[in-house]
Amino acid sequence: MSASTLRIALVGNPNCGKTALFNQLTGGRQKVANYAGVTVERKEGRFTAPSGRVLQILDLPGTYSLEANSPDEQITRDVCAGQFPGEAVPDLIVCVADATNLRLHLRFVLEVKRLGRPVVLALNMMDTARHRGIVIDVPELQRRLGLPVVETVAVKRGGARALIERVDGEVPLAAPVQADDAASRSDLHGQVRELLAATVTMPRTTAALDDALDRWALHPVFGLAILAVVMFLVFQAVYAAGKPMSDLIGGAFGWMGEHVAVLMPAGPLQSLVVNGLFGGLGTVIGFLPVILVLFLFILTLEESGYLPRAAFLLDRLMLSVGLTGRSFIPLLSSFACAIPGIMGTRSIQDPRDRLATILIAPLMTCSARLPVYALLIGAFIPMHKVFGIFNLQGVVLFALYLAGILGAMAVGWVMKHIRRDKSEHALLMELPSYRMPKLRDVAIGLYERGAIFMKRLTGVILGLTVLMWFLSTFPGPPADATGPAINYSFAGYLGRGLQYIFAPIGFNWQISLALIPAFAARETAVAALATVYLVGGDAAGGLGHALAGQFSLASALSLLVWFAYAPQCMSTLAIIRRETNSWRNVVISFGYMFALAYTASFIVYQVTRMLT
Amino acid sequence: MRLSDLPKGTPAVVDGVHDAHVDDPIAQRLRDLGFVDGEPVRVVAVGPMGGDPVLIQIGFTRFALRRAEAARVSVRSEIVA
Ligand SMILES: Nc1nc2c(ncn2[C@@H]2O[C@H](COP(=O)(O)OP(=O)(O)OP(=O)(O)O)[C@@H](O)[C@H]2O)c(=O)[nH]1
Q1: A435 CB less than 6 Å from ligand 1?
Q2: Which of these, A16, A52, A281, A371, has the minimum number of CB atoms within 10 Å of its CB?
Q3: In this predicted complex, what is the ipTM?
């Protein structure tokens, strides 16, 4: 590292806009959202300042105090104090404070100042502060604090110019180190009051908009009603808007496949291209719109500031099943994918609450299950209207989401009762101001998700699809074969072997086989079924048709329930291992989910068979 | 009076935070968040189930606290100057 590199650490209270500022400085695209605890890991970026000096920026998790309470806060404390393994002490600490929330944030600034390191204070969200008529006497604040103070607007282009100029200049002198004991800590509040009285005038302490919205959003009756409507609309919209687009894409790929088939000589290679690539991948890629619609809603909700309100409304309910209101946001992200959800649990301070949330997060219906659900629902559930407005297919999808949630609640409840340590759990959660989601941020978020999906598709899923095609094509049938060729392939044998385990829950050998690649990535089940049926030659009129002809309704429902609960997706198990640092938790997750899925599917299969 | 008993919308001032047991991290966190002598507080909203948690306005910030947490904070009614 060259001598002119300046190491800068961004610290501040949660939700003050550190990550937005980090992105602004480094051109990065780290996730920004309107709730406390978005950043849970240290992130690093660098850029070259106008003077030619390289600035290396560390984005750290937000913390209320250097007396760390949760794992992500510890990271911040250790980095600032130069105790983080493998991390040199930063040359400069940029302390970010929300200008609309200085009563709280200035205390942390004072705490950081006492570390005795060079500090620059960035007063962020100056746009909102001005809008609310908050006037800050910056020169006076700077004089009283003895620190350089700059104004920033992290979400506006060029909004960090003043900060860049300041950090690119001379490194400010450090304040003397001060002892940290209980008496001097409580004294900080007195100092903040004096600072505020001398430098800040505020027309009112809260934003009028927040007061007005919260009157409804947190109302005991309307609040819950609003929450239910929001959630239901999201899932209806996913189906209503995403599904037609998916069908269009799936159709287009099928059509292309047919045309390519004409150009190629018949044989195994043609079958790979037509069935494996266009049939299998085309089916999966068709789900991109569905996933993007889901993310559109999640990103908008995250940025609006509504999610912590939902957490507030649901805290009591979650507490009764051994969780906390704070679990709500990681669990909601798990609807996109359990991996960011499980990582997001780091913002839960209580280790018991955190572990419980990690263990049930995979039961939330992640977007990788959507292709499977959509395929089976499309093939087996008629398009009736229910109560004149809802589509029966949408209702079934909603029911599957609900099944995941109810299952999770049951598991949480059981864990709560077998847990030995029953001491108090804390909530202590800040509710941020409402904010209008920015089109640009949402668009970037969607692009990122889309890119991840496509990368998985072209990497893992493509590889597995080719493998499945290979298994179902070779070895070829003997000359005197009577049944379809696939019965003699590796896939045929493997599937029939697995069927012993899965026959009681109604899975035929093709499904049993498709469960193997689904363990690597759930979406692949769709591609695998497409490959198996297309290679088997049963798929005239599309995969949906083929399935409807081959399975009973009981098997289809059983498979849906299996996907709702089964321990699938290796990446999730790997992340549980990483986040909890314990194989035991991986075994527990896998074991309980397998048992849950098997039992639930068994019941559904047997009951449906009796009824139909 | 304890903050958990304060009726919704009534302005009050914090007296202090009591440790529920020795070395109570929750009490310490409350103090760090600004629950200190002389700070005005108000209950803004209460949760839909059993009035738990409560939403407290303190300084310019809103915090959701469970009743057991709010019970650590003692408050006095505001004397209108
Ligand atoms: N109006 C306005 N909004 C901002 C500004 N800076 C950040 N925001 C918004 O504030 C919210 C929080 O921003 P983040 O960058 O995620 O905050 P953070 O400090 O990294 O938060 P944690 O990761 O939770 O510690 C987001 O909704 C941002 O869009 C600003 O200068 N003005």
Answers
A1: yes
A2: A52
A3: 0.92
Which residue in A83, A56, A58, A54 sits closest to A68, CA to CA?
A83
B40-68 tens-digit pLDDT = 899 999 988 888 899 999 988 899 999 98
Q: What torsion, rounded to 10 degrees, do the Cα atoms A320, A326, A328, A329 define?
A: -170
Task: Count CA within 13 A, CB hemisphere, residue A385.
Answer: 3
How far is residue A15's CA from residue A295's CA, in Å, rounded to a whole number? Answer: 21
The reply to whether residue A64 touches residue B32, judged by beta carbons under 8 angstroms, is: yes
Domains in chain B, please, with CATH?
3-77 (2.30.30.90)
CA neighbor of B34 nearest in space, from A184, A189, A106, A114? A189
DSSP E strands, A378-478: 385-386, 390-391, 429-431
SS3 A15: coil
Residues from chain A contacting residue B33 (CB–CB below 8 Å): 64, 104, 428
pTM of the model: 0.81
Query: What's the rounded Cα separation, in Å, for the pair A401 and A411?
Result: 16
Residue A507: φ, ψ to 5°:
-95, 130
CB atoms A189 and B68 under 8 Å: no
Domain map (residue ranges) of chain A: 5-205, 224-420+445-611
Q: What is the CATH number of domain A5-205?
A: 3.40.50.300
Q: CA A316 to CA A323: how far, in whole Å?
A: 9
Using the predicted structure, report yes or no on whether residue A167 has a pLDDT greater than 80. Answer: yes
A569 C-alpha to center of ligand 1: Å? Answer: 32
Contact across the interface for B61 and A103, Cβ inside 8 Å: yes
Residue A492 CB: number of other CB atoms within 10 A? 22
pLDDT score of B63: 92
Percentage of chain A surpassing pLDDT 70?
90
Higher pLDDT, residue A36 or B65:
B65
Give the contacts of A407 (CB within 8 A, at least 6 positions apart): A363, A564, A565, A596, A600
